[in-house]
Amino acid sequence: MPDQYEMNFPDRGEAFARNTDPETSQVAADDIQGSKANWYEQRVLNVLRSYPDGLTTHEISDISAMYYATVTPRMKPLMAKGLIKDSGKKRKSPFGKLCIVYQATTQNQENK
After folding, report:
1. I need a labelling partner for 88 at 20 to 30 A (CA). Which of 13, 49, 82, 104 fits?
2. pLDDT of the chain, 112 residues: tens digit per residue
3. 57 in a domain, yes or no?
4. Total structural domains within the chain
5. Which domain holds residue 83?
6. In this structure, are residues 67 and 12 in contact, taking their beta carbons and an 8 Å threshold?
7. Which CATH number belongs to the domain containing residue 102 in this structure?
8. Where are the beta strands (DSSP E) in the chain?
9. Is residue 13 part of a domain?
10. C-alpha gyration radius of the chain
């Protein structure tokens, strides 16, 4: 039986940094590859599956006790895999800025 944190993901996870990001971001993305990236993605996905109305990245960070900077890079790969989506809703962040509300999709729900 696969580990619960690796069920929906290929053996090699991905972490991303833009070409314009500082060197520290590039190094951090290189450090979070493979199963560690998968583990973080699965954690974010599990939180979103527990909140069907969706959550912002700030809310995911608070609920999961993961750093915000760890949560935000997981969203693009999860969206690319079709496991989460932009709900079309927005909510204010703790800083008063509007944020995307993400929802888990029904894809791979049988592996939950």
Report:
1. 13
2. 343 433 444 444 555 555 676 776 655 555 545 445 588 899 999 999 999 999 999 999 999 999 999 999 999 999 998 999 999 999 999 999 999 999 999 865 544 4
3. yes
4. 1
5. 23-111
6. no
7. 1.10.10.10
8. 84-92, 98-104
9. no
10. 14
